[in-house]
Design a protein that fits this description.
By secondary structure, the chain is an alpha+beta fold. The radius of gyration is 27 Å and the shape is elongated. The longest helix is centred in the C-terminal third of the chain and has 34 residues, at 225-258. The two termini are 20 Å apart. It has two helices and 22 strands. The relative contact order is 0.20. It folds into two domains: 2-80 and 223-258, no CATH class; 85-219, no CATH class. The protein has helices at 2-27, 225-258, and strands at residues 37-43, 46-50, 55-56, 59-60, 65-68, 71-78, 85-87, 94-97, 102-105, 111-114, 120-121, 127-128, 134-136, 147-150, 155-159, 167-171, 174-176, 184-187, 190-192, 201-203, 212-215, 217-219. A three-stranded antiparallel beta sheet has the order 10-9-13, with no helix packed on it.
Length: 263
């Protein structure tokens, strides 16, 4: 019964973590380029009372006796499915349709990666993120530009006075990773490279497995509200069930104590 108490307690802790994950997903349902997390669990070690296959006389134990000791959080995995695209008519909003990440330069010179293409123009005409981080490769928009357009292949062009043809300003590239789930979420819609993700594979949009770009669009969060609410109900019921298991184990212990001849 003491095993039951601790196993049920580990279940409550795991479901609390699950609820934290679900709540974060729901909180970011309107965050551009956000990728939802999925909590995954593992069973803990087993106490072996009798090992399966142990010899008993001329035969062996066919199934054995093992008691599980609870559950733990195995991982919290980012799910990098495609989010829906929303038209914004802002020429500096760029969505990735397919695999890949935009590259941005952090203040310390580190390269970060993002699916959020809600870019802006700073005082010098440079294309930056909402937090002012430069987009790589760095692109500068002329002050007299009439309109800016981002092509599917990442080519950035602008119409300027006195020119009948659009002027090419630069080329956006995308970074791909062998293991997207191995990236480290940094906040601010940014990810950092890790040993688990592997090094970035920088390529032109539409080539080498990279997605294409859609100018004037943003990628919405891939969180499905209905699925998250269902997951929330399941987590809540699992939490309650583990709580009841603790209560039942406590009542059984109390009965055993009350029956003790040493009272």
């Amino acid at each position: 019964m003491m095993r039951a108490l601790y196993s049920a307690a580990s279940g409550m802790i795991a479901q609390q973590y699950n609820m934290d994950t679900i709540s974060n997903n729901l909180a970011n349902v309107d965050t551009a380029g956000f990728k939802g997390n999925l909590a995954r669990f593992q069973d803990l070690i087993y106490q072996t009372i009798q090992a399966p296959g142990a010899p008993i006389g001329p035969s062996i134990v066919p199934v054995g006796q093992q008691v599980g000791l609870g559950v733990k959080v195995g991982s919290s995995e980012k799910i990098f499915t495609q989010g829906s695209l929303q038209q914004t008519s802002n020429p500096l909003d760029v969505a990735i349709e397919g695999d890949g990440f935009f590259q941005v330069t952090l203040p310390d010179g580190t390269t970060a990666y993002t699916r959020d293409g809600s870019f802006k123009e700073d005082a010098n005409g440079s294309m930056v993120t909402s937090d002012g981080y430069f987009v790589q490769p760095q692109i500068t928009i002329p002050q007299n530009a009439i309109s800016v357009q981002v092509g599917e292949d990442g080519t950035v062009t602008a119409m300027v006075p006195g020119s009948a043809q659009p002027q090419q300003l630069g080329q956006l590239t995308l970074a791909r990773f062998v293991n997207n789930a191995g990236l480290q979420a940094q906040g601010q819609n940014l990810f950092l490279q890790t040993a688990a993700s592997g090094p970035p594979i920088v390529t032109q949009p539409g080539l080498n497995g990279a997605g294409v770009l859609q100018g004037g669009y943003l990628e919405n969060s891939n969180v499905q509200v209905v699925n998250e609410i269902v997951n929330m109900i399941v987590a809540q019921r699992a939490y309650e069930a583990n709580s009841k298991a603790i209560g039942a184990s406590d009542q059984m212990l109390q009965t055993a104590v009350n029956m003790s001849p040493f009272q």
